[in-house]
Amino acid sequence: MDWEALWLTARLAGLVAAILLLVSLPLAYWITFSRRRWTFLVESVVSLPLVLPPTVLGFYLLVSFGARSPLGQFWMAWTGRSLAFTFEGLVVASLIYSLPFAVQPVAAAFSQVDPTLREASATLGASPLRTFMRIVLPLSKQGVLTGVILSFAHTVGEFGVVLMVGGNLPGVTRTVSISIYDQVQTLQYAEANRTALFLLAFSFTVLLVVHGLRRRPLAAAPMA
Fold it and tell me: pTM here?
C-alpha cells in the first residue's frame, strides 16, 4: 500500500472539500434564489466539469497555469515558482473539477425549503443573512453534508485532471489513483489490487452514507 500517496490524497481531498463548502453555500444560494435572467449561464459553467472530458479540462488548466498566462505569471511573481506540477496546482484544479459535486446538492436542498418560511422571516424583520443562518441552512443540512462528502470522494478518485496538471511526483502530486496506475504499469498487480480494494470499499461507504442521508426523512415520516 502506497501510504504516502494515500496521505497526500487525504490532504488534497480534505482541503478541497473544506474550501468548496465555503464556496458552495453562497454560490448555491445565489443560483437558487436569484431572479436574474442569466443565472442559467452561471449554473451551466458550474456544471461544465460534469460533461467535459477530464483530459480536456486538465489541458486547459495546464495552459492557464503556464508562465505565459495571467494566472501563471501572478503565481510566479507571488511565490517564485510555477503553479503547474505542484500540490497547490492540484488544489486549484480539484476545486474546479469537483465544484458541481458540492454546489448541486446544496442548491437542490435550498430549493426544497418552503418559500413561506423565508417570507415570514422577512416579514418579522429578519435580515437575509439571519434568515439564511436560522432557517435555510438548518433545513438544508443534509444537502450540505452530501455536497461535502461527494466533493471529498470525487477528489479522492480523480485521475485525468490530476495527471495532466500535477504529473507524477512522489510526495508532491502522486495521488492514490496515480499510484494504482503506476503499479499496473510496473506489473505490481497484487499491490494495485490492495489499493484498488481500499478505494472500492471507500467509495461504497460514501454511497451508503449519501443514500442513508437521503432516506432519513422517509424513515422518520409517520406511518399512514
Answer: 0.85
